[in-house]
Amino acid sequence: MTAIVTGSTDNTGYYKNEGTAENIQIELRDDQDATLKNGDSKTVIVDEITRNAQFPLKARAITVNGNASQGTIEALINVIYTWQ
């Protein structure tokens, strides 16, 4: 199975915070700690018996340039799965 991640980014290349906190970006990582930026893909193996696939992800708020302000953190990241 292949997954492609997409979402709005800011000038740092990380996902854009749509909330009220300023100078905050959202970083998406996979289970190998590789950063997944807009348009990146990851392929995982499908279990032939259960026909299940796992695609663990983690997200965190970061500040690339410093001077983060308090507020809300919101982002929309789409994942498109292709099962082959």
Automatic annotation (TrEMBL):
GO BP, sorted A to Z: cell adhesion
SUPFAM superfamilies per record: Bacterial adhesins
Entry-linked InterPro entries: Adhesion_dom_fimbrial_sf, Adhesion_dom_sf
Annotated Gene Ontology cellular component terms: pilus
Top-level taxon: Bacteria
Protein's name according to its UniProt entry: FimG-like protein
Organism annotation: Escherichia coli
